[in-house]
């Protein structure tokens, strides 16, 4: 892309929406399959993103924001995986009882958190996520998780389509390859949400009092 074309793209698409009044954190599929060396899904960059998500998770909890974890889980016969598990056979590890399907130990699910089980890329597709967010009065979702080009992007698109502001701290998402990671962060920021640095997001969260931003 030429400089002129790149500048024009930013002029057309790069409008920032920012935070609304009540954010929630959605931690997408940070499970051991992506952080365990030797796993067929292992991705070192995802393990790094998990570490960066620890201070984000702590900040969201301090601000009193809802925290939602998602994980992909199929029945033992895999029939609820449809064509997805046929397209990506490695997903057959994601059954209840397989340690690789468990949330990473670095991001412990607290008693007040919400756990959403899903079978496809988007955290919204076929799940209770949207009615849950609506009942909590959430207008902004902060996305952490993996992979950037898969479940994070799909959730960002559906978040926008469901009328939610979407925030993606870039250090808190990861992929198996840098090229799709960067390309999808670019596209999410251009069309579906705001990609921010973790530092900027933490600063924004520090202004929250009782779930409302100080203006």
Content-based structural category: alpha/beta
* Overall 3D shape: globular
**Total strands:** 9
End-to-end separation in angstroms reads: 38 Å
Which CATH architecture would you pick?
3-Layer(aba) Sandwich
Question: Summed up, what is this model?
Answer:
With 215 residues, the protein is an alpha/beta fold. It is 37% helix and 18% strand.
Task: Detail the topology: elements first, then pairings.
Blueprint: H1 3-13, E1 23-28, H2 44-62, E2 67-72, H3 82-87, E3 114-118, H4 129-135, E4 140-146, H5 148-161, E5 165-169, E6 173-174, H6 178-191, E7 194-196, H7 198-206, E8 208-209, E9 212-213
Parallel strand pairs: 1-2, 1-4, 2-3, 4-5, 4-6, 5-7
Antiparallel strand pairs: 8-9
Helix pairs in contact: 2-7, 5-6
């Amino acid at each position: 892309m030429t400089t002129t074309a790149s500048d024009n793209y930013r002029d057309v698409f790069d409008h920032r929406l920012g935070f609304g009044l009540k954010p929630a954190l959605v931690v997408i599929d940070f499970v051991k399959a992506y952080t365990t060396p030797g796993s067929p899904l292992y991705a070192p960059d995802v393990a790094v993103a998990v570490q960066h998500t620890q201070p984000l998770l702590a900040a969201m909890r301090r601000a009193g924001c809802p925290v939602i974890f998602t994980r992909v889980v199929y029945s033992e016969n895999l029939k609820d995986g449809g064509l997805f598990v046929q397209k990506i056979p490695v997903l057959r590890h994601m059954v209840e009882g397989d340690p690789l399907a468990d949330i990473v130990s670095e991001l412990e699910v607290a008693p007040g958190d919400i756990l959403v089980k899903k079978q496809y890329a988007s955290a919204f597709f076929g799940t209770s996520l949207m009615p849950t967010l609506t009942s909590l009065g959430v207008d902004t979702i902060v996305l952490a998780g993996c992979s950037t080009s898969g479940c994070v992007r799909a959730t960002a698109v559906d978040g926008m389509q469901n009328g939610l502001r979407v925030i993606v701290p870039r250090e808190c998402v990861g992929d198996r390859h840098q090229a799709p990671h960067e390309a999808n962060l670019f596209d999410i920021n251009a069309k579906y949400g705001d990609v921010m640095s973790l530092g900027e997001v933490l600063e924004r969260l520090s202004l929250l009092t009782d779930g409302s931003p100080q203006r």
